[in-house]
Design a protein that fits this description.
The complex is a heterodimer of chains A (550) and B (286).
Chain A (H helix, E strand, L loop, with lengths): L1 H9 L8 H6 L4 H30 L10 H37 L7 H23 L24 H29 L12 H32 L13 H35 L6 H14 L15 H13 L1 H15 L8 H24 L1 H7 L3 H31 L1 E2 L2 H27 L14 H31 L1 E2 L52
Antiparallel strand pairs in A: 1-2
Helix pairs in contact in A: 3-4, 3-5, 3-16, 4-5, 4-6, 4-7, 4-8, 4-14, 5-6, 6-7, 7-8, 7-9, 8-11, 8-12, 8-14, 9-11, 11-12, 12-14, 12-15, 14-15, 15-16
Chain B lengths: L1 H23 L6 E3 L14 H34 L15 H30 L6 E8 L2 E6 L5 E5 L21 E4 L4 E7 L4 E5 L4 E5 L5 E5 L5 E6 L12 E7 L1 H17 L7 H7 L2
Parallel strand pairs in B: 1-10, 2-6, 5-11
Antiparallel strand pairs in B: 2-3, 3-4, 6-9, 7-8, 10-11
Classes of the chains: A mainly alpha (550), B alpha/beta (286).
Chain lengths: 550, 286
């Protein structure tokens, strides 16, 4: 355990800038990770308030609270953008990815610390631009899909959509830089002995995610640029009158947009794998299958985009292809679900809050996944396309599942990040309130969608009143659960029990972040830890799934 | 505010009336293709495509419910059996080739079972084999217009009825002034186009949903198997009145349809020929 000495030694060098300079100029992966998490929390409050306002309007038929329907559309648009680009991505990739990828692979920091800084500030600037887009002019009422011609200058005059485009450009640039940083770090800065096949699954998930970002975001950037020039410089990429085609946008958008949903959920897979393994006190079942299932999801995720366009008029043969390709994704995702179950099987499971959230995640992901199998079929999708069934599906499988993974990650790692432990009882109550809330909120939306209620409408025919009210009650419960999370967080920072040991979770927590002191010092792994599978007699420092045979 | 609460409360008895009318099938009007309060599944199918969608969905529902129950069952067993109290010493098993092979191959087989009827349904729903008539649909912000090229090429606009002008029995946000009228039992080829932004012509109970794009003609088809009225809503975000762009289709007997065509020719000719010629529309869009 030469490593423990190295960590103790490291504290001598624990000098860091103080005050605002520590944060604004930061090149430290932990500080930047923390800033990403704070940005995500702020954005989550904004995006969450928007969704509760939407649910308040939808609680009953008629236009009561939001009588300006353009404003309603702006809320729907901004809620989507904020949650995708400024809540989930910053928290998972910028936040936990920044914090724990270097710690888990035994690297002292990210490969490009200054680029790490600009990645964060570009993301923060993107959030500001997006907020501005809602207050300049009438706001973008286009939905997060920004389909032209609705997003063209003829139907959205004024600077709102342009601000939105710039927001995504800037945030996208930040994400691409962050992704490059993560790829380079993971490929080049692994400690000796930390082979690719010994990397913790969270690192694998971030690696695959980073590749998806680098490949998908430039396509969005290109599409957005063409929209920007259509709007401002007289080009006609998407304008029929000039020989353009609005479907071009849809293809480009979804070529980015579908990998984007995996960008959101893959890091969640990684987090859940770590947590399930830790609290089952078992190595992850089928480690290689789990790693390559994520790679497969990433690859196949690039060739299924047009399943978002089944009603757009693409030919029947391409719909048949996209149906089959989309169904195939169920195979690697099935491998993940069953491997988590098999990891728990035979384990000695401790039901700490991170584990409860991980089990909750599996439940939500399975429910959202099977409705995905239904929607994959172009022959049935047209009955459900653009209805609340789709809203229920993607909130289960991607949105709420991602939030569960983020809560799980926060509870799992807060002891390492802050050096304080969350209050177990309060947090358990928070879990139950939130879990019940989201299910009451989203499950009835399946019924509304099957019954034919379209999405993105501020008022609906009176027959849909019943389930909408139930759904809104669920939203209120979810709001209470969210408030409780902020209370738990506040309590933890103010009065949380200090974590005195490097590893508060015991034998199941075998990854390298649990070998550095809690809270993790400003600089860690200043001397490279050596990972030699089996050499320490208990599987080494690496992840539990390491096999001496490798 | 009080208005809306009242409306919400009223919607329950009102919906019951609608349901009653639906059950009774009120002979003069025929069936009503619409959702019911607290409905949990698809609207009743009144077209061959929607009936096949129902059947396929029933099959999928069995499969996905099975999968969810299987996972829930395993999860429950694991929680009860392998918690730290009952199983203090964890096993170290991390591989089982046969098991991993099984949970890769079995899902593939299930997917094949799904894919075959799925593709069949897709091709069946794609277009009418032998259409009896053509209906041209043109979307505008925020109403639809319809054109009957096989019946004298008359055209008319279908404007949503504001809430205050609703007649008894007309559902809010769904009724229009001039519904589309088709003969019952006829295979109707539908050609869809838009005059401005993207809309979507959707009638759930007839299994219809197709984007209306500028500069492009989309095709779909339906056959109303019963006389009645079928409601739908625009299903692609199209601006501030997206929520209030309903579709109302009436299926009537062949004789009644003939009579309606004669009347419509006169009535809508007086309005002047509207520019709803689908084929030329793209060029006129900005």
């Amino acid at each position: 355990m030469a490593y423990g000495a190295a960590a103790a030694h490291g504290e001598h060098h624990d000098h860091h800038p103080t005050g605002w300079k520590r944060w604004v100029y930061s090149t430290n992966h932990k500080d930047i990770g923390t800033m990403y998490i704070v940005l995500s929390l702020i954005a989550a409050l904004v995006g969450g308030l928007m969704s509760w306002y939407i649910r308040l309007e939808l609680a009953e038929p008629g236009l009561q609270h939001i009588t300006d329907t353009q404003f309603y559309n702006v809320l729907v648009t901004a809620h989507g953008f904020i949650m995708v680009f400024f809540v989930v991505m910053p928290a998972m990739i910028g936040g936990f990815g920044n914090w724990f990828v270097p710690l888990m692979i035994g690297a002292p920091d990210m490969a490009f610390p200054r680029m790490n800084n600009i990645s964060f500030w570009l993301t923060a600037a993107g959030f500001v631009l997006l907020m501005l887009s809602a207050v300049v002019g009438d706001g973008p009422g286009t939905g997060w899909t920004v389909y032209p011609p609705l997003s063209s200058v003829a139907f959205h005059p004024g600077p709102s959509v342009d601000f939105g485009i710039l927001a995504l450009h800037v945030a996208g640039a930040g994400s691409i830089l962050g992704a490059i940083n993560l790829i380079v770090t993971i490929f080049n800065m692994r400690a000796p002995g930390m082979t690719m096949h010994r990397m913790p699954l969270f690192v694998w998930s971030i690696l695959v995610t980073a590749f998806l970002l680098v490949l998908a975001l430039p396509v969005l950037a290109g599409a957005l640029t063409m929209l920007l020039t259509d709007r401002n410089f007289g080009t006609h990429f998407y304008e029929v009158a000039g020989g353009g085609d609005p479907l071009l946008w849809q293809h480009l958008f979804w070529f980015f947009g579908h990998p984007e949903v995996y960008i959101i959920i893959l890091p969640a897979f990684g987090i859940i794998s770590q947590i399930v393994s830790t609290f089952s006190k078992k190595p992850v079942f089928g480690y290689l299958g789990m790693a390559y299932a994520m790679v497969a999801i990433g690859v196949v995720g690039f060739v299924v985009w047009a399943h978002h366009m089944y009603t757009s008029g693409i030919t029947v043969n391409s719909r048949a292809y996209f149906t089959v390709a989309t169904l195939i994704i169920a195979v690697p995702t099935g491998i993940k679900i069953f491997s988590w179950l098999a990891t728990m099987w035979g384990g000695s499971i401790e039901f700490k809050v991170p584990m409860m959230y991980a089990i909750g995640f599996i439940w939500l992901f399975v429910l959202g996944g099977v409705t995905g199998v239904v929607l994959a079929n172009a022959g049935i999708d047209f009955a459900l396309h653009d209805t609340y069934y789709v809203v229920a599906h993607f909130h289960y499988v991607m949105a709420i599942a991602a939030i569960f993974a983020m809560f799980a990650a926060w509870y799992y790692w807060i002891g390492k990040m802050a050096g304080k432990q969350y209050p177990e009882g309060m947090a358990k109550l928070q879990f139950w309130v939130f879990f019940i809330g989201v299910n009451v909120l989203f499950f009835p939306q399946h019924f509304l969608g099957l019954a034919g209620m379209p999405r993105r409408i501020p008022d609906y025919p009176d027959v849909y009143a019943g389930w909408n009210m139930v759904s809104s009650v669920g939203a209120a419960i979810t709001a209470v659960g969210t408030l409780m999370f902020f209370l738990v967080m506040f309590y933890t920072y103010r009065a949380g029990r200090p974590v005195s040991v490097a590893n508060p979770w015991g034998e199941g927590a075998t990854t390298l972040e649990w070998t550095v002191p809690s809270p993790a010092p400003f600089h860690t792994h200043e001397e490279m830890p050596v990972i030699a599978g089996g050499a320490h007699g208990h599987g080494g420092h690496g992840h539990g799934q390491m096999r001496p045979a490798e | 505010m009080r208005d809306s609460v009242q409306r919400w409360l009223m919607s329950i008895p009102m919906a019951a009336v609608v349901m009653l009318a639906f059950v009774a099938g009120s002979r003069a009007e025929g069936v009503v293709g619409q959702s019911q309060p607290w409905q949990m599944n698809f609207q009743t199918a009144f077209s061959p495509v929607m009936e096949k969608v129902h059947d396929f969905h029933t099959m999928l529902l069995v499969i996905i419910t099975g999968i969810v129950l299987l996972v829930l069952g395993i999860l429950t067993y694991v929680i009860l059996r392998f918690n730290a109290k009952r199983n203090p010493v964890p096993s170290k098993t991390a591989h089982n080739t046969l098991l991993e092979f099984a949970w890769t191959v079995v899902p593939v087989l299930i997917l094949v079972v799904i894919a075959i009827p799925s593709i069949k349904l897709l091709y069946f729903a794609n277009k009418a084999v032998e259409p009896d008539m053509t209906l041209k649909v043109t979307a505008h912000q925020w109403y639809w217009s319809y054109n009957y090229p096989d019946h004298g090429d008359f055209a008319f606009d279908s404007i949503p009825v504001p809430t205050d002008d609703l007649k008894p029995g007309q559902p809010r946000l769904l009724a229009v002034d001039n519904p589309v009228v088709v003969p019952v039992g006829a295979n109707v080829q539908v050609l869809i186009n838009s005059d401005d932004v993207i809309h979507n012509w959707a009638v759930p109970s007839l299994g219809l949903k197709k984007d209306a794009l500028p500069g492009r003609i989309n095709e779909t088809w339906f056959r109303a198997d019963k006389e009645g009225v079928f409601y739908g809503m625009c299903s692609e975000l199209c601006g501030v009145n997206h929520y209030f762009m309903p579709i109302e289709v009436r299926a009537v007997s062949k004789e009644a349809f003939g009579a309606w065509v004669e009347k419509a020719k006169e009535e809508f000719a007086a309005n002047g020929r509207r520019s709803v010629d689908v084929a030329n529309n793209g060029a006129s869009v900005r």
